[in-house]
Specification:
Helix content: 25-40%
Number of domains: 2
Distance between the termini: 16 Å
Radius of gyration: 24 Å
Number of helices: 11
Strand content: 15-25%
CATH superfamily of the largest domain: Vaccinia Virus protein VP39
Largest sheet: 8 strands, mixed
Shape: globular
CATH topology of the largest domain: Rossmann fold
CATH architecture of the largest domain: 3-Layer(aba) Sandwich
Amino acid sequence: MSNIKLLNQEGLQFLSDIPDESVDLILTDPPYITSRDSGMDKWVDHVAKQDQEGATSLRTAEEWKSLKTLREWINFLKKDNSLYTNESIKKGAIKRKLKTYKRDFLKYGSIYGKKYAVTTKYGDWDSNFTLEQLELFARHFYRVLKPSGTCIIFFDLWKITSLKEILENEKFKQIRFVEWIKTNPQPINSNVNYLTNCREIALLGIKKSKPTFNSKYDKGIYHHPLQGGKDRFHPTQKSLPLFKDLINKHSNEGDLVLDCFAGSATTAVAAIHTNRRFVGCEMNEEYYNKSMERINGQTNTTNNV
């Protein structure tokens, strides 16, 4: 696949080697900087460290009371006393429960398990990314795009205004919203409020007038499922049908598509299926290797998804 080029390289370094006005479409999904904002990554690291030191941290009064009660039961049973509740309770059973609490807390941040708490720790690639870095990427995006080129960037819904300001400062024009509505969203906290992860937003900007747009009266709203199965190996992996739709509308066959946050290589695979050329990078070696396996498993036909 000589028309598909993916490098194991840092994004800004990769972009510095891309010639001016050589790219038709940028379709990319940078880190959303969500794990740092939530504080969950620091909390999980803190809990793991305390566990190594023999300490215990709890986030709520309810969790403290539950664990405190179990520990009191163990101390009571150690004195050869009997304990009667609505169930038959033995010291071994309580110790097993404590181990379960410890496991669930270290994994999910809650002794009650995944149902009640979801860790948003995506890794250093997310928590170390900044809006200042995104400005540098946007500057390169404008430079490498052809005059008729389009840039589409997926980003956190709550930071989309910051992204819009960055694109405007870099002289992008006709900035529009693109909305992906997930037809199979993960039911996180579904029993306490509306689903928060059932849609994602991208901003689209063009370099100059007359961009490629193979559509008409288009609302920019897409309904596609989350990627599943053996091809899903990245925590923020995007929908392949979604990216194929975007590439078909905003470029033509033979055009060059760029993604400097390749992740699981969905943009590259979508380019293969739509007969576009692709150039991109992924700095994480593990994701890069898995992405290359995924790319090498494709053929230039839309029948092999």
